[in-house]
Design brief:
isomerase, 6-stranded antiparallel β-barrel, 40% helix, alpha/beta, carbohydrate metabolism, L-fucose isomerase-like protein, Fucose_isomerase_N/cen_sf
């Protein structure tokens, strides 16, 4: 079971500086109210606790229960207790005060001035330098915006660490650039996995025969399309039966990500997973990669954790006119908002079987293109404007992007499948991959 992300504010005070407990409680209440208001958009913080001695420290540490401590010094003389709290967690946050910069209300500023006058800022400097000197992870927080940035980073890291990939079948033999070392993936990134054979999926697909949901989903899918070319309604229902089967298996094994040997699936059942993967990638908590590409699944998990946006994986086609086409049959439909992009219902390109979709993105938009590779040690990213949605004889969804230099992007490639997330997220993704995941990152 995934433990909920939580942050525990701990307000450290020395009786030497706060001999009057009532005065300390009043200051603590003001600080707690400030933190509570700041946390309103995220709801990650527990109620603040005052730590005023060794007994208070023991009680605070015993109640952490996996929460990350937010260390708030209310005076000097508290450094050792703050470090003990930091040592009790995988990482911590450290609050600092800026009394001269107009970032507090009048009542808050009066309290902050009292705290600062009791040598809280030297404690901040001591603790910050010591934790970082020991190689620990600590994030500074000092006002609402800094807290929201820290909370977003913590949530993304928590989501990546709690990714569990269901591997259905094996990586397709032609995907030679992707890692197959799930133990290394878990050791380096905290992403776990479970492997099942295609036979279990076949059985689940058959078990979903009496499920009424695929028929209604298929009708809704068909009615929302601009056009339906090759598939008939029965094939569309089978595609959504595959979606239900995969959903059931994800729930059965407690997984929130998928990598599937989809070509092997098509050969046996005559049904592809294109629509199923599209649907799963549109869901807020799930990612799904085809061809059993583990690197792509990891890339998509990281991309969605950081941006909150569905990620499209596709084949790259570099062109000498400094453009790049990224094409595949599994595109999500909610690529730029919570609403579906325009789409056509098509067959799967390579096999001519089953159902896929051509999704189009209209307007002038930028996208971030990226991939994790090199046995999870490297990442390459670049931003590019969307130029058009070509209609070539290739995979159904087709996006053309403009590049500064096709050769620079080509030379930096880590493998076949490239991930696309719409919006300018290069800096945020690169920082997260480098700082949180320890990757060697090239932001072109």
């Amino acid at each position: 079971m995934v433990r909920k992300l939580a942050v525990q504010p701990l307000l450290f005070a020395s009786p030497v500086y706060w001999p009057d407990r009532n005065e300390l409680d009043t200051a603590g209440k003001t600080l707690a109210g400030m933190l509570e208001a700041m946390d309103a958009p995220t709801s990650l913080m527990r109620p603040a606790r005052i730590v005023a001695g060794d007994a208070g420290l023991d009680d605070a540490l015993s109640s952490l229960g996996g929460a990350l401590p937010l260390l708030v010094p209310l005076s000097g003389g508290v450094q050792k207790r703050m470090l003990a709290a930091a040592d009790a967690a995988s990482e911590s946050l450290l609050w600092s005060f800026f009394p001269n910069d107009g970032i507090y209300g009048e009542k808050e500023r009066e309290t902050v001035l009292r705290i600062v006058s009791r040598n809280a800022l030297p404690a901040v400097a001591d603790v910050w330098g010591t934790i970082r000197g020991r190689g620990g992870r600590v994030t500074k927080v000092y006002h609402g915006d800094s807290w929201l940035a820290a909370a977003k980073d913590l949530a993304a890291a928590h989501r990546v660490r709690n990714t569990r990939i269901l591997l259905v079948g094996y990586t397709q033999e032609w995907v030679v650039s992707a890692s197959v070392d799930t133990r290394k993936m878990e050791r380096m990134l905290g992403i776990s996995s479970v492997h099942i054979g295609l036979e279990e999926l076949f059985a689940e697909f058959e078990a979903c025969r009496k499920d009424s949901a695929p028929a209604s989903l298929a009708r809704e899918f068909a009615q929302g399309a601009r056009a339906c070319l090759e598939p008939n309604i029965e094939q569309i229902e089978h595609a959504f039966r595959m979606y239900r089967a995969l959903k059931n298996l994800l729930a059965r094994y407690g997984c929130n990500a998928l990598a599937i040997s989809c070509f092997s699936l098509a050969k046996t059942l005559g049904v592809t997973a294109c629509v199923a993967l599209s649907m799963l990638n549109d869901e807020p908590e799930t990612v799904a990669a085809c061809e059993g590409d583990l690197d792509a699944a990891v890339s998509m998990a990281v991309g969605k954790a950081v941006t909150g946006i569905p990620v499209f994986m596709g084949n790259p086609v570099y062109n000498l006119d400094n453009t790049l086409d990224i094409v595949h049959c599994t595109s999500p439909r909610k690529l730029v908002s919570g609403n579906n992009q325009p789409y056509e219902i098509r067959s799967h390109h390579e096999t001519g079987l089953s159902v896929s979709q051509r999704v189009e993105v209209e307007g002038t938009l930028d996208a971030t293109i990226f991939r994790v590779g090199g046995e999870f040690r490297k990442a390459v990213l670049f931003e590019a404007p969307l130029l058009s949605n070509p209609r070539l004889d290739t995979c159904r969804t087709q996006f053309r992007f403009g590049l500064k230099s096709w050769e620079a992007c080509f030379d930096a490639m880590l493998g076949c499948h490239h991930m696309v997330v719409f919006g300018r997220h290069g800096d945020a993704l690169a920082r997260f991959m480098k700082d949180r995941l320890g990757m060697d990152v090239a932001l072109l």
